[in-house]
Protein 1
Amino acid sequence: MSFLPAPLEPVRPALLTRLSPTTRLVVGTAWLAVAVIAAGPRVSFALSLVAVVLLVIASGLPLERVPTRLAPLWLAALGLGLLTVLVNPSNGDPTVVALVRAGPLRVTGPALEAGIAIALRLVVIALVSLLVFATSDPTRLADALVQQWRVPYRFAYGTLAALRIVPLLAADWAAITAVHRLRGLQRRSPWGRAAEIGGSLLVLLVSAIRRAERMALAMDARGFDTGRPRGVYRPVALRALDAAALVVGLAIAVAALVLAAI
């Protein structure tokens, strides 16, 4: 039993699954940088449209699960966009024509444009992150970072181990709450439940520390602390497809910058 949803993984071979994780990481970083730098909603809308097309035809992900997995980000984008519209300084400028007027509330064109731009930036961040990280196994990402970018072994595989621990912590939390329920220790009052959550978190912290110690000892026993060069069991090579994807992805980023300058 786990509070975490099932991992969102590719269910069929696709273009993005054949690329090296570092290639996707470079292109995704460039797209996010362009979306943050560019002013106005046009660039973010164009990038989100391209990301949706790639998600549908080139990701291999189960499309029916994507909306629910990204639901918190959709709500965050809507809320942040609405807040930006309401607090924009142009709403208080009487020289700017109001699109919506309800009592003291004024919504102007610049405020609406700024809100849409903020919301679309969050949409781009959500879609690009999904295309970069959900289309390959975390182990392959760690292998690519070590082999191609020379990231230290302890950092890359330590981060991978930490990601692997997260589902185990969710299972531990479910087991702790089940034990409390079985022993009749669950409280009904809000203050009692708050105190119960505090005690459960303490148990979870102790369990996480013990598991981290065992994992650190296991990594040291496998030579991650020797500082010597290690062999490669799962080689991750850059191919012509990666070069083509890198050129096309960076060209899209440059085209988005040109669109922002028009």
Protein 2
Amino acid sequence: MSEAAQTPGSADSAAPVCYRHPTRETYIRCVRCDRPICPECMISASVGFQCPECVARGRKSVRTTRTVFGGKVHERPGLVTTSLIVTCVAVWLLQIAIPSLTGHFEIFGLAVASGQWWRLVTATFLHLSIIHILFNMWGLSVLGRPLEAMLGRVRFATLYATSLIAGSTASYVFASPLGASAGASGAIFGLAGGLIVVARRMQWDFRWLVGIVALNFLLPFVVGSIDWHAHVGGFLAGLIVTAAFTYPPKPQRVAASAAVVVLVLGACIGLVTYRTNQIREDPTYGSVFQLGGTFPDGGDFRPDTF
């Protein structure tokens, strides 16, 4: 008994169609699910092609690459460090264009005590000379990039911000309320302290870094205009916060890190509040606050320390 010949239009000879585009014929199949896929849906794989759904499922199953301390590894390393450098340089150019800007945003003790607390943050993006900003940005680049790579962007940004606030707090609390200061040195010393902790944790040779930090701590005794209070405050905060990022066991690391950061910032807030009340109650400065705690614009004041 002979078999009937198949006609070109019969169901058995119909070409397969893309599972996402039923009107498109194709003979290419996904190597994972074996469904037909058209050229628009084809995604190159190590062998053959895969469909969009299989690629999406595969990406979800791939674990995020992280550093030894839990930081996420990014394709663009040093992004936070670069952003901070660009911001400081941009602010420096604004200072040149608008000379009164420095007086409005520096740390001036009496102005902070009058309620202008934002100066504790804004002053750390100001610089007083080309040498000042070049030296600080060099330090930020040298210390920031390896730390950001080891800690990850979020932890690194948290370390920088906490050191920044701690340095400004130390400057406000321990320096004269009639003095003024500006610069990123406190935050950069925090990064130096952080890198020392990381190097110690990883058992690297960090004697060179200790030597550089020690030299910079001695520098204020030679150059009297340097605000060493901010250096000490930022350095201590950097040591403490980075230790919380690197030493606790992995299951408790996030909770310990968050708790330490909150404690450091809480201590800074407490010290600032105490110093503000102290200045306000000092009869030496009473005339400044006679108008309900207001303070005239600080644009006429020039910072004398960095």
Protein 3
Amino acid sequence: MPKPPIYFLHINKTGGTSLASVAGRGFAAAQCCPAGLVPELLALPADSIDSYDYYHGHFGCGLLGLLGRKPRLITLLRDPVDRMISQFNAHLRNPGTALHAAILARGGDLEACLTDPAIAHFLADYQTRSLGLPVDLTRLRENGPPYAGLQELVAQAARDADPADMLAAAKSLLDGCEQIALTERMAESVARLSAWRGLVLDGPVPRLNVSAENPREGRANQLDRRDLSPAGLRRAEALNQLDRALYDHAVALFEARG
């Protein structure tokens, strides 16, 4: 009987690029889905999407609706405030991103942006949205291009979603993941993932896709929580209440499965 595929459900700005260097090890190129983003996935021939043994990308749980097989799930969660600030940095840094112009219009000021309703909504509770909002990619593909990315799709879907239902769905999907990793415990996460995959690592996991330097002090990853005032930090936590509950659930599962 064929083995089910593996899907590394990569949540943006969690350090998943580094973990993927282990998760996808041992698969031949032809076994790996070449798409990493929703527009790339939906550009593939429809009859090819369900043909791979390994998937890794920013598809959220939407990919599950395109597969005729139930995949073995891996995901990685990060402290919600740190992840949100890292996502803010990516939008500030990259002109092609959805929030770049709006962030520049506020001088790249993180605290000012967190009080802007549109920016704050886009950045809030992204981990819960990724795991708890079943974006219908089949319908999106039928409507045709251009296709939005997952951040845009779940930000729109979250406007009509019940927060409690979204969190419950995210926790349920997390419960079904065969491997749950934590950014803050990356070495232990990699060791568990390697054992699960039956791999022997020949060194530490590489740090990939690391952001540029902090423009104020030269620290890695640009702005971080130290750039927030106490009021700004409270605002960041308030915007990620669902993600905080989901992250706590992930930590509890990680400990229980130790």
